[in-house]
Amino acid sequence: MGSSSPCLVDAQVVIDGFKYCFFDALVTGHAIYLSGWVRTEVAFFVADDGAQVPIALSSYVETGSVRIDHASAVELTSLAFTSYTRRLGRGELECLALVVARGYCFCTADHSAVRAMNDLGVLDRWMPLGELHPAALGFLPASEAAKYTRSAISLS
C-alpha cells in the first residue's frame, strides 16, 4: 500500500498507537482516516500503572494528519439488517460501510470485522498494522504485536 492510499484505522489501533508511542510515525507515513464514530470512541488509554491517559486527537485533525470521514445514512443502511450489527461495534460498522462504499483500506485486529470484510468481498482492503506500518510492531509487547498480523486472524 502506498503512503498516499487512504486507510481507516479502528479505535484500538489509535489507542495502541498512543499507548505504545507509534501514532506519530503512523500518521507521518500514511493517509490515516478515522470514522466519525471511532473518533468519538477514542478518549484515553490505560497506562501500565492503571492511570487513564487522555488521547488528544484534535491537533492531528486540525493539521490534517488525521482525517475524519462519516458514513452516510445510505452507506450505513447497507449493513443495517445484517448479522454484523450484532457482532460489531458502531465504529467497526461505520468503517465497514466506508470500506464497502468508498474503497478505503481498513486497519483493524478485530476478528469479527475481518470476517465481515471477507463475507462482504472486501478482504483485499484489510490492512494489518504489521503491513501498514511494520515498524509499529516493534513498539508493542510481543503479545500485542501478534494480534496485528494476518496469521492472528482466523476466517472460519
What does this structure look like?
The chain has helices at residues 11-19, 23-29, 36-41, 58-63, 73-80, 84-87, 90-102, 111-119, 129-132, 142-145, and strands at 6-9, 31-35, 44-46, 52-54, 66-69, 105-107. It has a single domain (6-149), classed as Rossmann fold (3-Layer(aba) Sandwich). It is built from ten helices and six strands; from the N terminus they run E-H-H-E-H-E-E-H-E-H-H-H-E-H-H-H. It is an alpha/beta fold and 156 residues long. Helix 5 (73-80) packs across helix 7. The two termini are 26 Å apart. Helices cover 45% and strands 14% of the residues. Strand 3 (44-46) and strand 4 (52-54) form a beta hairpin. The longest helix is centred in the middle third of the chain and has 13 residues, at 90-102. The strands form two sheets. A four-stranded parallel sheet has the order 5-2-1-6. A two-stranded antiparallel sheet has the order 3-4.
